[in-house]
Amino acid sequence: MQDAIPLKVLICDAESSAAESLRRALEDAPNVLGVKRVESAEEGLSEVRSGDYNTIFIDPGSLDLEKASSFIFEIRKTLPEIVFVLYLDRARAERNRALFYKGERQRFSHYYSLDKQTPVSAFADELAATLKLCQSDLGWRMSSASIERLRSEAAKLAKRSEPRNTALLDAVEENLSRLARRPSVQDASASRSVFLSHRFAEEEYVKGLVRLLEESGFTIVTGKSSNTYVSRSVIDRIRGARFFVCLMTRADAKADGTFTTSPWLLEEKGVALTLEKPLVLMVEEGVSDFGGLQGDWQRIHFGSKGFLTAALEAVAQLRSYVGAGDVAAQQGDATDRPPAGR
Fold first, then answer.
1. Cβ distance 38 to 57 under 8 Å?
2. The domain 187-330 is classified under which CATH number: 1.10.443.10, 3.40.50.1700, 3.90.1150.10, 3.30.1360.170?
3. Could you say which of 3.10.50.40, 3.40.50.2300, 1.10.10.10, 3.20.20.70 is the CATH number of the domain covering 7-141?
4. Which of 28, 120, 242, 305 has the maximal Cβ count within 10 Å?
5. 340 - beta bridge partners?
6. Sheet holding 193-198, edge to edge
7. Helices assigned H by DSSP within 195-338
8. What is the chain's mean pLDDT, rounded?
9. What's the gap between Cα 244 and its chain centre?
10. Residue closest to 247 by CA, chosen among 208, 189, 276
């Protein structure tokens, strides 16, 4: 039961219907110790201080946006072990993008998210995939003391003699054992598989990059996102790949003359960061919303005539990761090169 850390979930959402649907789904989900819902940032802060939550689902747009943002960033600073999931109407957030992602809220583009408009037929799978990401994140984020607190709580629940509670205790015990025998970075797989994240409108760029990567001995993995969310199958493919390359090309023009890229690329990059995949970003000149949390990894900018140079740099960086033995040694100061070919 890898990554089977039990979750204690707090829902912060003022939209009753969506919040209650999520609460019921979480109560039925395996490896969820408990769920509680509040309707404001103030209530959320009070609950976090008095409870012992490790996962928070929140819709900043349904609350006072400024207060919700302050709540999120305060918790991130004071209780960094807690994982946040944005439970929101993604299309509505995009329509109000200038406000929703303003200032420090640019970080929201890297957070896990679950779309309230996910089709009913897909919601269970998407929630399961999101919970799996949270558990994976907590697997390296949580301290031994936090794990022990969960172990104690699961043991109390198990005394109620419900089969589900016993299963939760087993999950905690298995996780403690797994953490104790976690392999070192040097023992990581030597696979040369690369998940290539890209807009599917960029066939010409992609064909050349794929050929170059394959000729360099890499195996390419891709996955097409749906129109509304990054599917569970895509998350699993990113998890299975050794490396992650993201080709961030222009999508929509912004008022300041720069461009957005596909929000699905940002989500896939967020998944790769959480799964600690060695990362290479190829960013087209003019794209401004590629985020900053990947600063420890290679970022290569390219112009309209510099794509080949950028692609060769990307391959060279991947080769350095393969030969690195210790992936962490590749992390250093943020690399922010000027556009290739200029």
1. no
2. 3.40.50.1700
3. 3.40.50.2300
4. 242
5. 302
6. 219-221, 193-198, 243-248, 279-284, 298-302
7. 203-215, 232-240, 263-274, 307-322
8. 79
9. 13
10. 208
Confidence check: pLDDT of 64 > 70: yes
Q: Which amino acid is at 62?
A: S
Euclidean distance between CA atoms 318 and 340, whole angstroms: 18
* List of E strands, 163-242: 193-198, 219-221
170/221 Cα distance (integer angstroms): 34
Q: What is the pLDDT of residues 80-139, one digit of tens each?
A: 888 999 999 989 998 999 999 998 898 888 788 899 999 988 899 889 888 988 887 777
Q: Smallest Cα–Cα separation from 14: which of 42, 52, 49?
A: 42
Sequence-distant (≥ 6) Cβ neighbours of residue 261 within 8 angstroms: 199, 248, 249, 250, 251, 284, 287, 289, 290
Kindly report the three-state secondary structure assignment for every residue of 299-332. Answer: EEEECCCCHHHHHHHHHHHHHHHHCCCCHHHHCC
What does the pLDDT look like over 156-215, one tens digit per residue? 665 655 555 555 556 556 655 555 444 433 333 347 899 999 987 777 788 889 999 998
Strand ranges inside the chain, DSSP E: 7-12, 32-38, 55-58, 83-88, 112-115, 193-198, 219-221, 243-248, 279-284, 298-302
Q: How many CB atoms lie within 10 A of CB 144?
A: 10
What pLDDT score does 226 carry?
45
